[in-house]
Amino acid sequence: METLKLGSSGTLVQYLQSLLKTLGFYKGNVDGIFGNQTKSAVLIFQKNFGISQDGIVGKNTWQKLSNYFYIVPTDVSYGSNILELNLKGFEQKFPFLVQGNIGYSALGKNIRYLKFGNGKKQVFYSASIHANEWITSVLLMKFTENLCSAYLNNSTIGGYPANYLFNQVSLFIVPMVNPDGVDLVVGNTKQYLPDIFEYAQSLANNYPNIPFPDGWKANINGVDLNLQFPAEWETARINKYSQGFTKPGPRDFVGLGPLVTPEALSLYNFTLSHNFSLIIAYHTQGETIYWKFLNYMPPNSYEIGRQFSSVSGYTLETTPYASGFAGYKDWFIQNYNLPGYTIEVGSGENPLPISQFQDIYNKNLGILILGMLLS
Ligand SMILES: [Zn+2]
pTM of the entire structure? Predict the structure, then answer.
């Protein structure tokens, strides 16, 4: 684990600050810059936990902090480094939550999955297939934390007893489909893998009007993972090429064929090896729920969509033609004729500021619970 001290910076420092704030030791901004105020907070933490007081976060201090890794921060730029720490925390705190990998990213990072519950019915939620939509990872991770805490404490979530939910369904969650892309957007790649950062920048140079790295949705090789599924992929290719997306870049490049990226292929295989009766793919922008693909109208899909809409205040819509093909939910609906949804949370410019998190969480909690019950 990286040692943090005066002068350190980045998302891990943000995480440290967030954690110390949650624990009541830090009152400053969660800005990712390890200054004197952060050092003072570390010193107080060390004093409280009986570690030698040097103001440096090394092995012993991380060890003590790791008891709180299960707390998902909702005020930091959330990359795969923090996801991994939270998952370690979940492993300690919530042993009943199954963890595994669906595969590996182009850079060899874990693409994690979680499984909550023992029910026969299988439901699947995924997030951050688009890099600059990483706030959706925080949504699914915070939901998982709260769901597991409720189960652990024999209490309720969203009005439902957690142990009822546990017995009712097996909920599968992939909180970050595109870890390489997310790390690029949150600053981890620039800090830890400068060569890869330059490589991505060279791809982004094909599209000078798209902000870099903030406008990056694709995987690290510049392929848009949500245009990678065998559901009218050829139509998606024609649409996107006609819009000028003919080369790898930050977004909207369909790739040289369907499922040529390890991330999309992993998601595809993971889906085929289960029996999901409902899926939700989380995205950002527009507070909208998309439920249809072409003329497929899976039984109950519209009705469930109406209920999602009513508990969230989001509008239920059909996908616009220009972006209506080769997406994960498109393929799921086409392949299974079962309810599949793309949910676009929040509004503004991607990446959405993490300050929108609480509002997004409040609006989606009902959907996340109903998704487990209605399918
Ligand atoms: Zn998206």
Answer: 0.98
